[in-house]
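## retry 2 of 3
previous attempt timed out at serialization; input unchanged, resubmitting
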Amino acid sequence: MRRLGKVLAAAALAVSAATAPAMAAEELRIGVEGAYPPFSWKEADGSLKGFDIDIAHALCEKLGRTCVLVEQDWDGMIPALLARKYDAIVASMSITEERKKRVDFSAKYYNTPAMFVVAEGSGLDVSPAGLAGKAVGVQRGTTHQCFMEKIYPDAELRLYATQEEVFLDLAAGRLDAQFSDSLQADEGFLKTDAGNGYGFVGGPQHDLECHGEGAGIAVRKGEDELLAALNAAISAIREDGTYKTINDGYFDFDVYGD
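## retry succeeded, writing output
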């Protein structure tokens, strides 16, 4: 997003803790989900892990601020931001025109396609006609719900609070297919024991209206200085190798996309 030059200048200073000592002790409250592996999940000891979590900490470090991670169910992610429960959202939230009506977004920090997952050998046709009357699971309130409702109006759409619940019902045979981010499905399901016997079908799916242009960091409207600082920090971790280090800890290709 383009901002006034003076705001961008302020952001550049904010990226360096040395040049912005007043920010060093400030907390930056980040809304995260904690139920979307490999982007975010909770360990047995309650600690939060994942790509989104590491990106959040890296950005806070660049800004010279202390990350305070605030868990939030996906359905309430934007309402909680607007209610000032936290200052920004780092939770694989796609940048869409509909969401832009309520919040502002940073530049993208990754972009991966969505795909269907079905049981291998099912022969399921994932065209709109082929999925008519078939049970398809998606996480509620996501861009994937938008896509299914728009492109597959005749499918039996089943909505879940978390993506993990979608995978559980798919593995239990209660769904004919699931639709989600391809990387999340691969790492969080297909490469696990529960995903044995399942695979992608139909190739990458994308609708700009629903899926947007990638995942960005959401902030409240009017928070121009914070937004510009986050954009500068995203650029900084891309340039200094921090992003690559985090990326390579989870994936074998650059998820930033084109």
